[in-house]
Amino acid sequence: MKSIQLETERLLLRTVREEDVPAIYAYRSRADVGKYQTRYRRLADARRLIKRVRGIALNTPNTWHQLAVIEKSGGGLIGDLGIHFTGKENRQAEIAYTIAPEYQGKGYATEAVLRMMGFLFGKLRKHRLVATADPRNKSSIKLMERVGMRREAYFRKSFWTGTEWTDDVLYALLKEEWPVIKNIKKGR
Questions:
Q1: Which CATH number do you get for residue 171?
Q2: CB of 162 closer than 8 Å to CB of 39
Q3: How many domains does one find in the chain?
Q4: Which range of residues forms the domain containing residue 159?
């Protein structure tokens, strides 16, 4: 399997394609988006994201896979999700997410991340998922906590944004915790 296609009530999550480059670059090149993560300074940066996925089988250890987040009602690309298949045993994954600023605060990131977590714990049988963020990025921290992740580590000046060294906080969730979290989100 080289690609993924997942759906939620409002979103389509699918493997990125070449035609996604301009839309991804449009928000990833913005200073407000690049404040807490690596900022794309050239269109070629977005193209590299697409090339990284092409030709690599899904769930290959030590590789990344990127998904476009598409709003079903409008059909537009509103963000992207990354999956880093980590470790030689390949039972863990790192997740990452970026939503264009004009679509933030509407629950899209939570909806997309929960669906991706379900896929990773379910179909791909991952044991543990992690995510990291700059601790100043309060929205990202709230998202990780909202989807049930807990803070496990705080790393000082461990992430290079392209302009500065920043602190990094790591959150995680185990597969055995997932059914409990999933039921809480459904109101059970």
A1: 3.40.630.30
A2: yes
A3: 1
A4: 5-185
Is residue 93 a contact partner of residue 64, using CB atoms and an 8 Å limit? Answer: no
Instruction: Compute the distance between CA of residue 92 and CA of residue 96 in angstroms, rounded to an integer.
Output: 14
Q: Which 3 state secondary structure label does DSSP give 16? A: coil
Rounded-to-integer distance, Cα 110 and Cα 125, Å:
21
Q: Does residue 157 or residue 54 have the better pLDDT?
A: 157
3-state secondary structure of 21: helix
> 108-121 and 138-146 helices cross at what angle (nearest 10)?
50
DSSP string, 42-74: SHHHHHHHHHHHTT--TT-TTEEEEEEEEETTT
From CA 62, how far away is CA 13, in angstroms rounded? 22
Q: Return phi, psi of residue 168, to 5°.
A: -140, 130
Residues 6+ away with beta carbon under 8 Å from 176? none
Tokens of 166: 């920043």
pLDDT at 38: 77
C-alpha to C-alpha distance for 68 and 23, rounded to whole angstroms: 10
178 with 141: CB under 8 angstroms?
no
Question: Which of 70, 53, 65 lies closest to 111, judged by CA?
Answer: 70
Kindly indicate the confidence band of residue 187, based on its pLDDT and cuts at 50, 70 and 90: very low
Q: How far is CA 64 from the centre of its chain?
A: 10
